[in-house]
Specification:
Layout: E1 4-9, E2 12-17, H1 22-28, E3 52-55, E4 62-63, E5 74-76, H2 80-95, H3 111-118, E6 142-144, H4 154-162, E7 168-171, E8 178-181, H5 197-201, E9 207-209, H6 213-221, E10 226-231, H7 252-262, E11 266-269, H8 270-291, E12 297-298, H9 303-312, H10 326-341, E13 349-355, H11 359-364, E14 370-371, E15 374-375, E16 379-382, H12 383-392, H13 414-417, H14 424-438, E17 456-463, E18 466-474, H15 476-488, E19 495-499, H16 516-519, H17 524-538, H18 548-558, H19 564-570
Parallel strand pairs: 1-5, 10-11, 10-13, 12-19, 13-16, 18-19
Antiparallel strand pairs: 1-2, 3-4, 3-5, 6-9, 7-8, 14-15, 17-18
């Protein structure tokens, strides 16, 4: 049992757990201390010195994010000495910072900018020489601007300690210090998996997605192009945050309305393709179990995870489901089934995916993901880019009426919705696999064993006479831990779900930025996931195989799951990739 200590902060006596830092103790007492490099559960280094406090008896000011509390400790968080020290440290950071705030992607949503306002920085006293470094645009997903980097280390920690990839780290010393890939390589020449968790962690504009907004506007303006858009499940759970709505507010109807007003010719839902994925993936799983196929089968919905597997665990490539990810499936369906039904030349169709994920930008460009000579998806926008388009168009998003997606590729079940949360793919698959295997109706369809934000979740599910061993991992760091246990023979599973980002797609690299202050008290992953589970509960149809439009597309086009045509259009393959090619 954790012991408690009594401390005094700003003349207020409080009791806190003895393992708390001063920052955590102050936060629990409602006392706000500024931070910049600190990111809860990810980065606690005391590097920025914004969180300095005065501890009675200490020789110098202490960094509260790393200093532990002690019995009887007396702390002051707001004195002239502290305020001047924080302001000086902030001005030193700004002295070598690209301060072109108006044209920065993080303008009005920058933790550095916010601190400048809060601490009253109106001029920079330290006006020395600035270091100008080239902007790295080599990645299809991520732009790295070292001129805006403040060396906080948050991206380094998430890449090394959470994702356990280690593409980013510190280089050089003193004034020449920088954060960069190893060997001075551009990020596009590294085993970066494009997950964008570095972007999510960055407090400034040093890391951002490679935008495709202008390409999409050009396609919409071109009268010879039929522009189709689709939205991933997790987008509806976070988009509202960009317009001042509470975290966890589902904006599905307003999102569809906004897309229509932006000028897209058809507004479809990736949730439909999530249901389609369950039909294909569930059938593939049953085939492997019944026919002695490669087990465990591992999900293939997350492109960051797929690239991680190709680089770091190629021995598991045969374990991956051959299913394309849902948005790639829908792109293939649009350029085949939909094109034929509507007598449209596939070369004249432009498919736009609105995704919570920066890795989807990379995925859309993979040569393996094409349909009849055409890439399944032509452009990928993140949730943040989508919000920018809405603002550029002058739409009053909050007051838009709720509208539906276009049929038939906009109809989905509750199972399709929960794909956006960790464990959602597994739960959706279990709902269908159970009924297909047993020919019995599943009474309790909420598989709570696979829900939540624990890094690795395991369960054994009884399906008829078969005990199905399952596991769920989110973040590639947790995936690595799980795969090592499978390799050693310590664990045996039939089916594994892996999502590349912690929490799944709701916390993807393309989702709205959330400040470290908010993250101290709110689990972003849980709050956004609630929106998806609530939408699932509200659906009349909550199982993928019960979606009448899924039945329709098989009756009219694919015949049955895993048919020859389904394999041609909805399945793919993967390749071993070197970590650092010669």
């Amino acid at each position: 049992m954790m012991g408690m200590v009594t401390i005094t902060i700003d003349n207020k006596s409080i009791q806190v757990p003895e393992e708390y830092t001063i920052l955590e103790a102050a936060n629990s007492a409602g006392i706000k201390i500024p931070t910049l490099c600190y990111l809860k559960d990810v980065n606690q280094t005391g590097a920025c010195r914004m969180c300095l406090v005065d501890v009675e008896g200490a020789r110098v000011l202490q960094a509260s994010c790393v200093a532990k509390v002690g019995e009887g400790m007396v702390i002051r968080t707001n004195t002239k000495k502290i305020r001047e020290a924080r302001k000086t440290n902030l001005e030193l950071l700004l002295s070598n910072h690209d301060r072109e705030c108006l044209t920065c992607s993080r303008n009005h949503n920058c933790e550095l900018q916010t601190l400048c306002e809060e601490l009253g920085v109106t001029d920079i006293e330290f006006k020395g020489e600035k270091t100008i470094r080239p902007v790295d645009t080599s990645s299809p997903s991520i732009v790295r601007d070292p001129n805006k980097c403040i060396l906080c280390g948050r991206c380094v920690s998430v890449c090394n300690d959470v994702q356990k990839i280690g593409v980013l780290n510190y280089a050089n010393r003193g004034f020449e210090s920088t954060v960069s890939p190893a060997f001075d390589k551009e990020i596009g020449d590294t085993p970066c998996i494009n997950c964008g968790q570095c972007i999510v962690s960055c407090p400034v504009g040093a890391l951002r997605e490679k935008t495709e907004i202008d390409y999409v506007w050009d396609a919409i303006e071109d009268k010879d192009i039929h522009v189709v858009v689709q939205t991933a499940p997790a987008v509806r759970a976070a988009l509202g945050e960009e317009f001042g709505l509470a975290m966890g507010t589902s904006v599905t109807g307003r999102m569809a309305a906004a897309l229509r007003r932006l000028g897209f010719d058809k507004v479809f839902d990736t949730d439909f393709a999530a249901d389609l994925t369950i039909m294909e993936e569930g059938t593939e799983l049953l085939g492997r179990i019944n026919n002695g196929g490669k087990l465990p089968m591992i999900t293939s919905c997350s492109p960051g995870w797929i690239k991680y597997c190709e680089h770091y665990y190629p021995e598991f490539l045969d374990n991956l489901s051959t299913c394309k990810s849902p948005h790639e499936m829908l792109g293939a369906v649009v350029k085949s089934y939909y094109a034929e039904k509507n007598n449209i030349d596939p070369s004249k169709i432009y498919v736009v995916s609105i995704m919570p994920c920066t890795a989807k930008k990379y995925e859309a460009k993979r040569e393996e993901l094409a349909c009849n000579g055409h890439q399944d998806v032509d452009a990928v926008l993140t949730t943040r880019e989508f919000a920018k388009m809405i603002k550029q168009a002058g739409l009053d998003f909050v007051n838009l009426p709720d509208e539906d997606f276009d049929s038939i590729l906009g109809e989905s079940s509750g199972a399709g919705v929960i794909f956006g949360a960790t464990g959602g793919v597994m739960e959706a698959a279990l709902r269908t696999v159970y009924e297909v295997l047993t020919n019995e109706e599943l009474k309790e369809i909420n598989f709570t064993q696979v829900r939540g934000t624990e890094g690795i979740k395991e369960a054994t599910i009884k399906i008829g006479d078969l005990d199905v061993n399952i596991a769920v991992a989110h973040s590639t760091g947790c995936a690595s831990e799980l795969l090592e246990k499978v390799k050693s023979g310590e664990k045996q599973y039939h089916f594994i779900e892996v999502m590349g980002c912690s929490g799944g797609c709701v916390n993807g690299g393309g989702q709205p930025h959330v400040s470290s202050k908010v993250k101290m008290n709110v689990d972003v992953r849980r709050e956004r996931a609630k929106a998806l589970y609530n939408e699932d509960e509200a659906k009349v149809i909550r199982k993928s195989h019960k979606n009448p439009m899924i039945k329709k597309i098989y009756d009219e086009y694919f015949e049955k799951p895993n048919s020859h045509k389904a394999h041609d259009l909805l399945h793919t393959h993967y390749v071993k990739r070197d970590i650092y090619p010669l």
